[in-house]
């Protein structure tokens, strides 16, 4: 049903309107009494307000909930103009209007009824053809939606009509967004009652709508749901192959692996293979191959996929495109999915969209830009005003029913966007004037200004816009004139012309100040623009940044929160949101925001650093250690002394707690993790005194081995401090070194080995000599007095021990000397007494 997008379900009570609709006789549906009488009623009036009232009255009279037998005819009457509108603006070929349509078209241009298509101050694009068909269709489908509340078809077609309405507006409309979301929520309640193929197609449609509004998270959910229902397993892998004609050795290339699980999804209710699909032009390059030539021919083979399964792969392709940064790595991931669809084309709309996307990707590469342009070429036959992707878009031999298969799930853009892509390709090739001509025909004034700037004819852009303003002044044109002239007064005129309802006017106004780093002035205009239209995703981001630069943390946090709802895959927004929460003293919220940033970009050391600092403030020591190791993995060297000091304090904090078996195990495990981190750091950074000192603070005093290790670490801390040029010129440095020495002496006295104490003494003596030489005046050195007294006391104790040691050595020497004179004497006794020295008693 929804797989063949322009059909309604058949049944025993079908009337002639359903048969005409399903057979593709859309123009003949205007002969239906309901639609024919409606058009006659409307064209008989000459006042637009009366016309709108008559339309409402007619629908209220003829569309009644108790008349369910009439529901299909009313629904078909609503679909007929909508499908012809799609044909004229999306699929082609050009519509041959019936007499009634010609009269209604001429009538609608004299009346002001199309003003009803304006939403939130956003006008219909000037390039849209036959917008009156959309107008009459939306009114009928709206009536069927609210009248026949149990009709699933009415809900789905009303959703589609609203989304088409959104696509022909200049900007996103919050009013339409709210309506579409409400209808989608109602449709979701009935998904279990339809076939699996229809459920998949609807999930793809939902995803397409979410993508249009920039909600990547919702897009991901629906695409994943459709992929699972379809039984597809998609994964990127590698295989050896050659990309160029002169390549001698095979190198690793990215490939797509496709596996199908579960029952087979139906291929199509009708005929999936179409006789004339768009032509896939071959790459005619001197160096690059048209396709990668794999060493194993099976590497680029895929299972036979239905059109619906190809639509699911296409949706996954768009998910990758929208959720990842725009770079060469993303493009490399897209090509295997593109090739999978192009290798076995089945559905016109799917292949057309795939070729268009490939053309957009190839427009930026010198070896493929020519094919990109050739795939989007101008044809003069039959429909000279339309720029086509390939001949099939305007080919009258290809029926609309063939083009309609999976149309709503295919992401097929309107015809004017195809022309815009061609103009973009021409710019890539340097054909600025050709691109300018296309943009002028499309009335794409932003791109017109760009082209004139590239041609160094900015004054010409101003002239063109002023000419258009004389024809039909609009807020958009005034804004563009302001951009061309750098004149704020133009934005003021646009704002006044819109009766203070133009989000665009305030946006251009804000961007004028933002680009000049006048963030304070830009903030109020961003806020006014977003108050009118909250769907401007990029404006939320810029408001957040402007407020952040002005240190308006609450405004910035609100803006970034709104932005990450629309785009949760932006790590910069999450990171900046964390910064705002930190400034607002909301550390736990900052911690959670930074966690989201790391989910998006796991390899950014700056985000890890922020996460580490916040975790340190919250005493989440395991996260601190994990973050520090990750930073070292990415960056190599990184010393953050405040964070390391927090870890040392954490070790001491656990030591001071009551001891039991579980807590002792935890303390030992935590200490081991901290020691491991310090060991890794000091293997990379060997000349940081504070790093060595903090390392020594983590080492316990419980064993002789640990005391010796601690002493060695303190010696390295002292040596690193002494190696710093000019350390003695700074009192703070002197105080710090004396403190390190005092710790060194304390450890030495605990060890009580002569060689250890001697090394401590030598270190202290040399250091104090330098300090006294620099600060001989007592007043100057008074700041050091406390630490120096402590060191002197330790030194005196060490010297006394030294004298005692020397006296014992002399006694041993005298004994050995006289022992040689009395070699024949017998030793009657040998006593080992105090402090390890031997005294012999002779007879």
Automatic annotation (TrEMBL):
Gene3D superfamilies tied to this protein: Tetratricopeptide repeat domain (1.25.40.10)
Keywords: Repeat, TPR repeat
Residues in TPR repeats: 571-604
InterPro entries, alphabetized: TPR-like_helical_dom_sf, TPR_rpt, TTC27/Emw1
Coiled coil segments of this chain: none
The keyword Cell inner membrane belongs to this UniProt entry's keyword annotation: no
Keyword Repeat: yes
Family (UniProt): Belongs to the TTC27 family.
Name of the protein: Uncharacterized protein
Native source organism of the sequence: Polyplax serrata (Common mouse louse)
């Amino acid at each position: 049903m929804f797989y063949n997008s322009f059909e309604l379900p058949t049944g025993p009570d079908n009337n002639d309107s359903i048969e005409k609709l399903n057979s593709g006789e859309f123009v003949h549906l205007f002969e239906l009494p309901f639609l024919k009488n409606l058009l006659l009623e409307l064209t008989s009036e000459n006042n637009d307000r009366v016309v709108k009232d008559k339309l409402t009255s007619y629908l209220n009279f003829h569309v009644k909930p108790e008349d369910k037998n009439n529901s299909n005819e009313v629904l078909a009457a609503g679909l007929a103009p909508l499908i012809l509108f799609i044909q004229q603006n999306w699929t082609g070929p050009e519509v041959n209007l019936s007499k009634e349509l010609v009269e209604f078209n001429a009538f609608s241009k004299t009346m002001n009824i199309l003003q009803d298509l304006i939403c939130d101050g956003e006008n219909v694009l000037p390039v849209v053809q036959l917008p009156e068909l959309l107008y009459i269709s939306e009114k009928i489908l709206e009536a069927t939606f609210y009248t026949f509340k149990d009709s699933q078809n009415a809900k789905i077609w009303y959703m589609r009509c609203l989304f088409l309405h959104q696509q022909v507006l200049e900007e996103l409309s919050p009013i339409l967004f709210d309506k579409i979301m409400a209808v989608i929520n109602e449709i979701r309640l009935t998904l279990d009652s339809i076939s699996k193929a229809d459920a998949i197609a609807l999930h793809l449609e939902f995803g397409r709508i979410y993508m249009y509004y920039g909600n990547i998270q919702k897009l991901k959910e629906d695409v994943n749901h459709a992929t699972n229902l379809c039984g597809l397993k998609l994964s990127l892998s590698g295989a050896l192959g050659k990309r160029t004609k002169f390549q001698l050795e095979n190198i690793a290339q990215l490939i797509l692996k496709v596996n199908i699980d579960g029952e087979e999804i139906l291929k199509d209710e009708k005929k999936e293979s179409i006789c004339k699909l768009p032509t896939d032009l071959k790459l005619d390059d001197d160096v690059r191959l048209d396709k990668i030539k794999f060493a194993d021919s099976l590497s680029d083979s895929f299972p036979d996929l239905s059109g619906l399964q190809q639509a699911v792969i296409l949706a996954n392709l768009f998910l990758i495109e929208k959720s990842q940064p725009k770079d060469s790595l993303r493009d490399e991931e897209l090509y295997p999915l593109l090739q999978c669809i192009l290798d076995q084309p089945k559905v016109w709309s799917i292949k057309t969209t795939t070729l268009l996307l490939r053309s957009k990707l190839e427009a930026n590469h010198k070896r493929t830009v020519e094919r990109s342009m050739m795939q989007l070429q101008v044809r003069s036959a039959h429909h000279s005003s339309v720029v086509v992707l390939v001949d099939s878009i305007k080919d009258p031999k290809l029926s609309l029913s063939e083009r309609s298969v999976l149309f709503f799930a295919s992401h097929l853009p309107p015809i004017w966007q195809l022309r815009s892509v061609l103009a973009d390709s021409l710019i890539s090739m340097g054909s600025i004037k050709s691109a300018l001509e296309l943009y002028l025909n499309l009335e794409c004034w932003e791109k017109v200004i760009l082209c004139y700037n590239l041609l160094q004819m900015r004054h010409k852009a101003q002239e063109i816009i002023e000419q258009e303003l004389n024809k039909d002044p609009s807020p958009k044109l005034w804004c563009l004139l302001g951009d061309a002239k750098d004149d704020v007064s133009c934005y003021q005129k646009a704002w006044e012309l819109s009766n203070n309802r133009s989000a665009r006017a305030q946006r251009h106004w804000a961007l004028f100040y933002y680009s000049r780093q006048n963030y304070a002035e830009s903030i109020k205009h961003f806020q006014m623009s977003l108050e009118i239209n909250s769907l401007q995703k990029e404006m939320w981001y810029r408001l957040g940044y402007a407020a952040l630069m002005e240190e308006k943390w609450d405004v910035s946090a609100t803006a970034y929160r709104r932005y990450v709802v629309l785009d949760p895959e932006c790590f910069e927004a999450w990171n900046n949101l964390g910064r705002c929460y930190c400034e607002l003293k909301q550390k736990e919220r900052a911690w959670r925001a930074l966690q989201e940033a790391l989910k998006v970009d796991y390899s950014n050391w700056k985000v890890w650093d922020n996460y580490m600092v916040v975790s340190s403030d919250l005493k989440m020591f395991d996260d601190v250690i994990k973050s520090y190791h990750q930073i070292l993995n990415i960056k190599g060297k990184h010393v953050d002394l405040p964070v390391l000091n927090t870890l040392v304090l954490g070790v001491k904090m656990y030591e001071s707690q009551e001891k039991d078996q579980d807590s002792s195990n935890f303390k030992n495990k935590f200490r081991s993790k901290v020691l491991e981190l310090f060991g890794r750091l000091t293997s990379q950074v060997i000349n940081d005194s504070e790093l060595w000192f903090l390392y020594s603070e983590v080492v316990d005093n419980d064993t002789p081995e640990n005391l010796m290790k601690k002493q060695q670490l303190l010696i390295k801390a002292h040596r690193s401090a002494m190696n710093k040029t000019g350390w003695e010129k700074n009192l703070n440095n002197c105080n710090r070194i004396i403190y390190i020495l005092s710790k060194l002496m304390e450890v030495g006295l605990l060890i009580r080995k002569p060689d250890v104490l001697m090394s401590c003494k030598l270190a202290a003596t040399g250091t104090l000599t330098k300090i006294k030489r620099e600060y001989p005046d007592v007043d100057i050195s008074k700041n050091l007095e406390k630490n120096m007294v402590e060191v002197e006391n330790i030194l005196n104790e060490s010297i006394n021990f030294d004298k005692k040691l020397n006296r014992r050595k002399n006694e041993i020497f005298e004994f050995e000397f006289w022992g040689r004179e009395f070699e024949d004497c017998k030793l009657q006794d040998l006593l080992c007494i105090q402090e390890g020295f031997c005294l012999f008693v002779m007879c």
